[in-house]
Write a structure and sequence with these properties.
Number of strands of chain B: 11
Shape of chain B: globular
Structural class of chain A: mainly beta
Largest interface: A-B, 24 and 27 residues
Number of helices of chain B: 0
Largest sheet of chain A: 6 strands, mixed
Strand content of chain A: over 45%
Strand content of chain B: over 45%
Number of helices of chain A: 0
Structural class of chain B: mainly beta
Oligomer: heterodimer
Distance between the termini of chain A: 38 Å
Largest sheet of chain B: 7 strands, mixed
Order of helices and strands of chain B: EEEEEEEEEEE
């Protein structure tokens, strides 16, 4: 079954509004990664978090990894039309030979 | 610059045909992966390989097989294509976990092959 849940599935915002997507795993993850897929493109790695409670920022994007290493969030402040795309979270589990467990993604639409 | 290439961007095949999708990476990565992507279902792992001639089933291996004879190449085979295998197929590669710190496991994706089975 689905091991990494991601919500919401879709989010429509007006340019300038904030956006958050949430990721929850049924098991502890060794790390969490975030990817962005632009329309018509392929997923591209954004960032990785490893430590419990870790917070990282990339300009308007803030990434968090939960204390129990089972959940994560991506927050975008003041969205722009260039933020359009699908955001995926994905995590490694300790002994899974490098495979990532992906959430189903959140598709973000930004109205100008 | 790292690169993952896939043999075709678009492919149209008939039901029952044997279909080969090829993926090549130039980063000397140990791990390679095949996913299919369908609307609302995200990325679903079909098979992956952590070494030459090694393979592991992912979440949806039925109807597929894989081959990895060389480190840089990972092939996905649809033994007898069916219409429910119409999808976007994405290949990815990554470095191996062993011996590295945890900041090096990102996956690099190819551009994808959109397969239509009629």
């Amino acid at each position: 079954g689905q091991q990494v849940m991601q919500i919401p599935q879709y989010q429509h915002v007006q340019e300038g509004e904030d956006f958050t997507t949430y990721c929850n795993s049924s098991t502890t993850l060794s790390n969490i990664q975030w990817y962005k897929q632009r329309p018509g493109g392929h997923p591209v790695f954004l960032i990785q978090l490893v430590k419990s409670g870790e917070v990282k920022k990339q300009k308007r994007l803030t990434f968090q990894f939960g204390e129990a290493k089972k959940n994560s969030s991506l927050h975008i402040t003041a969205t722009q039309t260039t933020d359009v795309g699908t955001y995926f979270c994905a995590g490694h589990r300790g002994s899974t030979l490098g495979r990532l467990y992906f959430g189903r993604g959140t598709q973000l639409t930004v109205w100008p | 610059d790292v690169k993952v290439t896939q043999s075709s961007r678009y492919l149209v095949k008939r039901t029952g045909e044997k279909v080969f999708l090829e993926c090549v990476q130039d980063m000397d990565h140990e791990n390679m992966f095949w996913y299919r992507q369908d609307p609302g279902l995200g990325l679903r792992l079909i098979y992956f390989s952590y070494d030459v001639k090694m393979k592991e089933k992912g979440d949806i291996p039925e109807g597929y097989s894989v081959s990895r004879e060389k480190k840089e190449r990972f092939s996905l085979i649809l033994e007898s294509a069916s219409t429910n295998q119409t999808s976007m197929y994405l290949c990815a590669s990554s470095l191996d976990l062993a011996g590295l710190d945890s900041s090096s496991y990102e996956q690099y994706f190819g551009p994808g092959t959109r397969l239509t089975v009629t």
